[in-house]
Amino acid sequence: MFNSLQQQPADKILALMQLYKDDPRENKIDLGVGVYKDASGQTPIMDSIKKAEHLLWETQETKSYVGLTGTPEFSEAMINLLLGDKFDRNLIASAATPGGTGAVRQAFELGKLANPALRVFVSDPTWPNHLSILKYLGIPAEPYRYFDAKTRSVDFPAMMADLSNASEGDIILLHGCCHNPTGANLKAPEWDAVIELLLKSGATPMIDIAYQGFGDGLDEDAAGLRKLVSSVPETIIAASCSKNFGIYRERTGLLTVVSHNKDARNLHQSTLAFLNRQNFSFPPDHGARLVTMVLSDKDLKSDWIEELETVRKSMLSLRSQLANELQKVSGSNRFGFLVDHRGMFSRLGASSEQVSALREKHGIYMVGDSRLNIAGLNSDTVPVLAKAIVDCGI
């Protein structure tokens, strides 16, 4: 039966990682893979996580399954992080998932279960896995314009024009902060306009928030999300702990459904449990347990916030360094957008030919759409990248 299988398209980022690995040049630079790295090029384990793991090793007495939707303690800790401690818990259903990707997949499954004719409006561009999962599930993806390649900022009028085509029964997928792949975020008045549109159209917002704390701060990065959740009848939230807790391989995420109809909460909770059962049964617990311990212990949480702030400020510093270096080398301020972007990524607006030239001539690897991972840089490689960008005519 397997003779009928067809070769699936290669993942572009994984293929890029292999090209980088095979490149023998010692001075090559990897700006492609979406993983945080420190100045030495390592993805470190946070001290707060190490402390929690040590405590867990000393105190954990069983490796038995947790519930179908994970532990209530994990959900409570994450909901506090996402929405603050004042939001009515009687309005919220939630389920632990294998990473943020698992939360996204379950959210799309939930939408299709609720509406077999579901359409999902997706920013152009967006994280490629959004489109891949939607295609696999047979859910139509409706692109909406988001990024202006000339200004390297959000094309908000075009975005709103496209979203005006959404209606009740549709999902509008928004990035909570640190937009991947562009780094360009909605401003507070723009979030207000999106909320007004949602209220008029009846469409349901879905927020993918994978980088809380990487942009302007934990509360600042959740401001748009919190305002939206308080304002619209229903919201779906897919959250990841991979980046801000540095636990990529532990696959820790949470899917949350908020409804201002209190009677809907139990139905939503049982549906999330049902979906987990169909896809993977019980969610992984190790990473979720660590996150719960860090967020529930005053000292561990304080340590974690301090570490996360160091990561955030490091990326902001690298952004400023790169923008300044590019201004010096190019004699132009056309790269000033790098300072305005937030999170690990920015899109340079380079052509695929220019991206290829960076790789072939200078050993600098980034995704073909010119998305670069700011966290892949350090103070020594910033000048190298700036000269290469100008040399390749970007």
Description:
- 46% of the residues lie in helices and 14% in strands.
- By secondary structure, the protein is of the alpha/beta class.
- The chain folds into two domains: 11-44 and 313-391, Aspartate Aminotransferase, domain 1 (Alpha-Beta Complex), CATH 3.90.1150.10; 65-296, 3-Layer(aba) Sandwich (Aspartate Aminotransferase, domain 2).
- The protein has a seven-stranded mixed β-sheet with strand order 2-10-9-8-7-3-4, with helices on both faces.
- Helix 2 (47-59) packs across helix 11 and helix 12 (298-330) crosses helix 15.
- It is globular and about 60 Å long.
Report a brief summary of the structure.
This protein is of the alpha/beta class and 394 residues long. Helices cover 46% and strands 14% of the residues. It is globular and about 60 Å long.
Topology, element by element:
Elements lengths: L11 H11 L6 E2 L16 H13 L12 H12 L8 E7 H16 L5 E5 L3 H10 L3 E5 L1 E2 L4 E2 L1 H8 L7 E5 L12 H14 L2 E6 L8 H4 L1 H9 L2 E7 L11 E8 L5 H15 L6 H11 L1 H33 L6 H4 L4 E3 L4 H11 L1 E2 L5 E3 L7 H11 L3
Parallel strand pairs: 1-12, 3-4, 3-7, 7-8, 8-9
Antiparallel strand pairs: 2-10, 5-6, 9-10, 11-13
Helix pairs in contact: 2-11, 2-12, 3-11, 4-5, 7-9, 11-12, 12-15
User: Could you please say which CATH topology of the largest domain applies here?
Assistant: Aspartate Aminotransferase, domain 2
CATH H level, superfamily name of the largest domain? Type I PLP-dependent aspartate aminotransferase-like (Major domain)
Given as residue ranges, the uncertain stretches (5+ residues, pLDDT < 50) are: none
Let me know the average pLDDT.
96
How many domains, as an integer? 2
CATH architecture of the largest domain: 3-Layer(aba) Sandwich
Number of helices: 15
Radius of gyration over C-alpha positions, nearest whole angstrom: 21 Å
Number of strands: 13
How many angstroms does the end-to-end distance come to? 49 Å
**What gross morphology would you assign?**
globular
| Major sheet characteristics | 7 strands, mixed
Helicity, in percent? Answer: 40-55%
Query: What's the SSE pattern?
Result: HEHHEHEHEEEHEHEHHEEHHHHEHEEH
Structural class: alpha/beta
What top-tier CATH class of the largest domain fits best? Alpha Beta
Q: What is the percentage of strand-forming residues?
A: 5-15%
Q: In which order are the strands of the major sheet placed?
A: 2-10-9-8-7-3-4
